[in-house]
Amino acid sequence: MSDSHASTGLKSWLTTTDHKRIGMLYFWSAFGFFLVGGFEALLIRAQLVRPDNTLVGAETFNQLFTMHATTMVFLALMPLSAAFFNYIVPLQIGARDVAFPRLNAFSYWVFLLGGLFINASFLFHAAPDGGWFGYANLTERQFSPGLNIDFWVLGLQILGIASLAAGFNFIVTILNLRAPGLTMMRLPVFTWMTLITSFLIITAFPVITVALVFLLFDRTFGTHFYVTSAGGDPILWQHLFWLFGHPEVYILILPAMGIISEVLPTFSRKPLFGYTVVVYSGVLIGFMGWGVWSHHMFAVGLGPIADSVFATGTMLIAIPTGVKIFNWLGTLWGGQIRYTTSLLFAVGFIAMFTIGGLSGITHASAPSDLQQTDTYYVVAHIHYVLFGGTVLGLFAGMYYWWPKMTGRLLNETLGKLHFWLIFVGMNLAFFPMHLSGLLGMPRRIYTYSPELGVTGFNQVSTVGAFIMGVGMLVFVYNLWWTRRRGVAAGPDPWGGATLEWSIPSPPPPHNFDVIPTVVSRLPRWSQTQLRAIPEGAEGPGPIHVPAGSWWPMVAAAGLPVMAIAPLTHTLWIVFVGAAILVFGIYRWAFEPFEV
Amino acid sequence: MSHAATVHHTSMGLDNRKMAFWAFIGSECLLFGSLISTYLIYQGRSISGPTPAQILNIPVTSVSTFDLLMSSLWMVLALAAVQRGDMKWAKIWLLGVAVGGLIFLGFQYYEFSSFVHEGLTLQANLFGATFFVLTGTHGAHVAVGVLWMLTLWVRALQGKLGPGHAITVEIAGLYWHFVDVVWIAIFTLVYLLHK
Amino acid sequence: MEDTTTPAQAHPTAATYLRIAAILVIITVVEVGVFYVPAFRPLMVPILLTLSAVKFVLVVMFYMHLKMDSPFFTFLFGGPFLLAGAVMIALLFLFGVFALGR
Which domain holds residue C87? Predict the structure, then answer.
């Protein structure tokens, strides 16, 4: 039997394998990185507030937009989604933890160390500066001689391992650890979207791994994978990157879509409209997401056949996406709406993501995309779908599940203030970018001339961005205020339909006293769920919760150590790092650990 | 490897680790698929330096291919031995797999060093880069497999491996066979079908 | 650690494994033979691709036990495998390896 679990203290957090604790670790780390990425955005907007500005120089600006995007995608949005995968999915499926709790801890530590590694580049004034998509051959040693791109390549490789491990973990968890009676078509939509996202992760990340290996070898060993003078093709990088990159944007949006598919029914007091269609649309989006990657490459000269194929696929993928939007609207329609902050964010998601989708449709046509590509029009699209979509969806989730995770409700007045500041701020910030983009303002420029005629739009964007910053401060204050003064939530403050609302807030380590048997899609709304336990049914089984372990963290530590070797051009460090990794894995494999 | 004292109910009636491992193998298809695609895309595009026709040694590689195929046979025999509790033969076959892997790596070491000696390096041309990264990644996978097999062999020597642990040997087998299957693809596409 | 293969799908015997090993060796010999015999040159690509596909399927279905195991494992492996194949073919087209219309 496992030894005693100290429930407090640093050691208990460092060795935790409890999905709820790991979820909280992901949340705080990711939220911290989110603020860092936001700060980088504010610096960008401050520089662009007026033409010919001199707040930061060109090189610093390149680092700012590269790190803003890299941080937001890999260190904020994905891990914030992971926070909810971790905390909520086992609760929604009636499990005591994920399938591989130590692997789960390993994923977290690798993510944290990877995030710290890539940000450590700032200490060397060598933050990545080649854009978050790192196009070859700008990223070759010849054109990027410093450590910047090395930090980027190595940091992403480390982060990729964290994501892959989590992907395998959640696939097995969702498929194999469901409570009795919980068939796939009774799964909460958030859990379904987590499953699809996990499949996308395990198939897409290997491709970027290979792309990065080629770039690392070019930079470190003098190979010519992307070097034209040796017959190499920089377009290979673009293909490999976007083969990953397009599924990646679905990895970013599907979890948020899952969240609002939970929030909208709860605050409409109505089941999700067309559950089956929403689930199948998610699956379809996952598949089709693999067939559109070169719509990021319409300006590269792939030829009319390739362009047409990818344009068609891109237009088609709008169908399942649009279907979901109608289903969400259908959920609200005729419902008993409660205007909680969580609901406001969910409705905001629908509106903002739709706008982002519309600009996306205009990108789908290769000829119109040629006008838009590399202009601020694309920046507008990105931010409407990723901020208006993913971030608003994540905030909907935060307000929805914070009471479950902490036992206290976030303050609704502060929440609504947060929402309106963010909502107004984001539209001020990003809507003008459609216009400045079409007027010809290129992306990734550190300044612009007054003659371009986009000064007004930039000023409005900057004001919007700072309003968003104020909104985030309100949220931070809300988090702090709630710690002491938050209203106690109880197990089910919202009257939710799914299993997580049937246990205390926060849940005990073992989650469920008795693993429930599920007979409907909405267990807590269904009368049939409330039957007495039938004759002869099994009583509660033994509960045990595994103790923590140091080895996932030890093994994780081997990876950044290995990464130091290419940075410093010292080979032996690789072996030290590998030894730490292997040692950690062996101790992990042979330690007694009962799940 | 530790295992639960109680058998846990699973929704699909499948072992968690086995399911995770098949998902991992699926993921590895994308990894090797990207490497092989790059090799095929860059075939014939080297501007200078040794070409496959000049440098590949089909007879020698056929022998190493045969060796790897046989090691897959030792692996299934090892699993069968563990499943029936015949630890004497399990140890023999597990060691056989590890030795088979080491022989393969030995051949690869010989091949790599003779290629370098003949002027094909990572840096020489696209053929060098794509060949060494593809086959080197595969070789690294073989090396990890050898380590895994030796670990199982040592556990067997220590009396800590038995029919109750058959699933861990089965999973090691899945890894080994997959590495073999990737080599089947590489041997055909890189060696036999070279331009 | 449930491995719920039904009694009807028992493990292959050692004899089966040996037979498959023999087939794999024979196929490999044929492949190398096809490589060296000039008469087969024009058909080399389809023959070799087919032969190695057969080897691949034999190892996966029997040595990796996929044929006798849950169909779900076939899906779990087959899905990404087919995806990898489709991506590879798409990339080869995009880079002009199939030399269409030239």
Answer: 70-102
